[in-house]
Structure prediction request, 202 residues.
Amino acid sequence: MVNRGSWRRGSLAGAIAILVSVSSSGQARADDASPPAAPPMQEQVLPPPQAAPPPGYPGAPAAGPKVLPWREGQPVPPGYHPETRVRKGLVISGAIVFGTVYLFTALGGADAVYRGSSGYAPLFVPCAGPFLTLATTRQDSLETMGLVLDGLVQITGAALLLPGLLVPRTVLVRDDVSKAFVLPAPMSFGPSSAGLGLVGRF
Prediction:
């Protein structure tokens, strides 16, 4: 007869051996299995560049010169508007000629008055000052010529400066350009007083 105890021990050992072999094979298969591949990265597709809108379309970059000459009654091209501006060339040239000569003349008159020659006080008067000084002082021919030339140059500078300020011109300005301008305008400083002031955009 087969010993039941030994049979049970053999059966138990065989069962344990089968479990160990099954678990070992499963672990080996698990080790041999390669890890799952990472999902492919999706490429980002950039939108195509937008073409620039044609000139004249809203939002399109402005084209053409900033300022165009214009006369009353002429058509205004699209993208431009009329503006009134001072005559810059006359203002600059007139201010340089008149301001430079008058400054040196006034300084010379101030020095002469400081030294006791009160007859040179009219030199503080612009344009007419040199001619008035001819009547209030005694000069030689060279000084007389200098005073006459001084007065004529001041008058020339003023003749350029005043029309440049008082007679503005109308030009066409591009809509995207905005510049400062200054214009003279009559102003009242009280119920019985009047004067001249400057208006403009800054």
The chain has a mean pLDDT of 74.
